[in-house]
Amino acid sequence: ADKIRWKGQSVFGISSPLGKYTIVLWKKYVEEMSGGRMEIVLHDVGEVVPGTKIFDAVRGGILDFGANTPAYQKGQYPAGDLFYTLPGGVLQFDDLILWLYAGGGKELEQEMYGDKVIVFPCGLTPPEEIWSKKPIKTLADFKGLKIRAAGLSMDLWEKLGASVVLLPGGEVLPSLQRGLIDATEMLEASYDYTLGLHEVCKYRFGPPVHMSNNIFQLLIKPKSWKALPDDLKIIVEKAAMVATFQGYADFWQDTIKFNKKIEKYGIITTKLSKEDQAKTRKLAFEILEEKSAQDPFFKKVWESQKKFIADFKPYYDLTKFD
Amino acid sequence: MGLVRIIDKISEWTGAIAAWLVIPLMLVVMHEVWARHVMNNPTGWGYDTCWMIFAAQFLIGGAYTLYRNGHIRIDIFYHTLSERGKLIYDTIISLVIILPPMILFTYGGVIYAAEAWISGENLSTTNWMFPAGPSKSLIPIGFFLLGLQCVADIIRNIHTLKKGNQQ
Amino acid sequence: MSPDQLAAVVMMGILLVMVIGGVHLAFALLFLSVVFGLIFQGDMIIPMAMLKFNGVMESEILIAVPLFVFMGTILEKSEVAEGVFQSLYELFGKIRGGLAIATVVTCTIFASCTGVIAATVTTMTLLAVPPMLKRNYNKGLATGVVCAGGSLGILIPPSVMLVMYGPMANLSVAQLFAAALFPGLLLAFLYLVYIAVGCWLRPELAPAIPDEEAVERGPALYKKAAKQMLPALFLIIAVLGSIIGGVASPTEASGVGAFGALLVAAAYKKLTYVKVRDAAYTTLIVTAMVFFIIIGAGIFNSVFLFLGGGALIKSILMAMPFGKWFVLSVMMGILFILGFFISWQGLLYVIVPIFLPVAISLGFDPLWFGLLVCLNLQMSFLTPPFAYAIFFVKGAAPPEVKTTDIYWGVIPFVLLQALAVLLCIVFPELVLWLPRVTLGA
Ligand code: NA
Ligand code: NA
């Protein structure tokens, strides 16, 4: 049989950890598991279409597949954020992935896009930290703090009294250096260290009240999907799942390694108190309820998540060490 | 030549609109600076408004720029041509190279913008949630105006060439 | 080579022929993208182009371009810039090339404020080229200085290129910024030395002030110069200082700068409706010219890479022979030559993933190597036929400037850039000292 050749694009640089522990792994697994029956041509971000336009490119049939983050379509699909990350520690990464794979999440994610694209979760990052040039010990320290943020967390920061600045990723470091912003969220330890955040910020803190983690997507053009034989369909889907978990574990190794470097560098690390964490969680619930009132599908997904939290929490609390 | 005059007028008018857009662009940026640095309360709309004005400026202004011969080209070879040769050469470039992509981009842009209007999709750049239709419509408008100006240039060149033949 | 890759090569070849043949760069790029896209990708090319265009429209960082250009044109049309350069001309007196020196210094300051080359090059062309031509500066020198000085912004931090390079090569952007500072200043210094020496050896390049014009001396001259220069200088220092000092982002500063230019023009009683209108129209033409090139190059790059042109270049490079310093010179040579034809973004996508592992396995310091790559890519702004700096200068300069003038004008500066690469190879501390001292790298 002829080799099946798919062309697609990453949403992040393929040599950065966001690429190499997500979509690059998926490519590798699909090619290996299919015994060479499928060839995946993976373009780097921006090569074919801008990273922010992957969804449109797959929907429009320009690409057979694309790695994506729903944050780039929040105007079209406000509920997309719920499949990606939630603020205030509502459904942390390990819980969100359980809901996504078995609690009705991935079905809702497909429902959101209808027949426009096929979607599978693909790619999971270790949890984030937050960097600051000023010491942050309590929520009161957020008052007037100029922070770079994006997505659902913007509302949360504003509720906490911070002044949110929208900046493209490339502007973050120079802006911190010059003092245009005091603080930023970026990613986990290895990525942040590589960017050099430790060289301009003296402090970092946790937990990541703005978002827990990032779960990315594999989008597939429906026509290319339908043309696949059934066994390859299974391979494409399962390869995404394996890439998610293997990539997550590999990514953590980087996080661990670079966290040591950050500690050795002498960055002052603080953590918000339990009471403060509970406050941000409460604010996050408020924000999610507000958004639900604006968009019916957002409400539907959020209700599903709330039900999952309610069902999940008793046994989780019983078994979790505090 | 009536058509040519009408098209030139259209380019002049749209050019005037696009040119003066720099003033609101400046004022919106100034307002953002004021709101952020002095009032410590940035607006939700400033960021998107800025890039939409700026996109309108260069897309709508493309036709006027063509009319004023502002799109740059390397003149080493071009300068060796006679006046008549230049006219013929320009006509071929306009007809074969410039016009066809403009038609396709106008067509594609109408579809692209129509999708946004019909689905009622919003911008994803910030949390402002402004409709995406207006900014996407700038693409077909800009390329349509460019294509129109290109047609005017072709007619004008052919007319001048004919006049030259008669003399 | 697959048929698609062959097509990518042919597409690049036709682009060169068309550009040299006098087709508008922006339209040649759009035309070839459509033709090759339709043949090899089918009608998908049109929606793909829409996504690319929309991506450029939404890029907030580029808004600084029209506003800086507007600031420049207001200062130019209101003759404020002319006054500043006239004063500099008189102050420099018998020192030849004084205006060119002032241009390089201004460019260097501008470079430390923004990494957007289009903004620096077009603004400086509007401000500095007409005054230099008016004083009979050689056209090549006048435009070459702006091309070279304006491109410093891609090296002197902040720089878009370094921000892109960091994550691709696993290098800290903060370290790259620190590492790029001295090479950037070294380049500016080389330009200054060249201008001073060159104009001393060949006085016709940049005539010094004639005796009959140099009537005023001493306090009278200084007083007049202060009156002509201080408001505009104050504006430029305020705009650039607010960026460096962290008060404003480049986009914000560009808006304030444009408004400030209006105020300065008003202070000199030179602000009229006609001048503002002319400035607005010039801004429009320069902006549209620049952005149609940017969107054209964007879609052209996409088609080229989609056809596998990038992969082809990779495979050619992989077949190169080995030997540490030889490989380094081959890599630098390839970058230099490809830089004539491909934009720096294209080079960055192709080169970094290929060259970097090779360089590291040969034992070169990745930070140092990264800076060599970036220094080298800076030359691609000046090397024709595909040279952004030349295009932008040509588009914003007075019509009497011919493309060939600029070509001749950039040659010495390209040679100086090559010299800088060589100096950084011979003296790696130029690159590595600052990041080690400040960041403990
Ligand atoms: Na710069
Ligand atoms: Na070049």
UniProtKB/TrEMBL annotation, chain B:
It is found in: Cell inner membrane. InterPro entries: DctQ, TRAP_DctQ. Residues 25-158 form the Tripartite ATP-independent periplasmic transporters DctQ component domain. The keyword Amino-acid biosynthesis does not apply. It comes from the Bacteria. Keywords: Cell inner membrane, Cell membrane, Membrane, Transmembrane, Transmembrane helix, Transport. Its main location: membrane. It is a multi-pass membrane protein. One of its GO terms (cellular component) is plasma membrane. The chain crosses the membrane at residues 12-31, 51-67, 87-118, 138-155. Belongs to the TRAP transporter small permease family. PANTHER family: 2,3-DIKETO-L-GULONATE TRAP TRANSPORTER SMALL PERMEASE PROTEIN YIAM, SLL1102 PROTEIN. This is Tripartite ATP-independent periplasmic transporters DctQ component domain-containing protein. It comes from Dethiosulfatarculus sandiegensis.
UniProtKB/TrEMBL annotation, chain C:
InterPro entries: DctM (IPR010656), TRAP_DctM (IPR004681). GO terms for molecular function: transmembrane transporter activity. The lineage of its organism: Bacteria, Pseudomonadati, Thermodesulfobacteriota, Desulfarculia, Desulfarculales. This is C4-dicarboxylate ABC transporter. It comes from Dethiosulfatarculus sandiegensis. Its main location: membrane. It is found in: Cell inner membrane. The chain crosses the membrane at residues 6-39, 51-75, 95-128, 140-165, 177-201, 229-247, 253-271, 283-313, 370-393, 405-428. It is a multi-pass membrane protein. Keywords: Cell inner membrane, Cell membrane, Membrane, Transmembrane, Transmembrane helix. It holds the Pfam family DctM. Residues 13-430 form the TRAP C4-dicarboxylate transport system permease DctM subunit domain. GO terms for cellular component: plasma membrane.
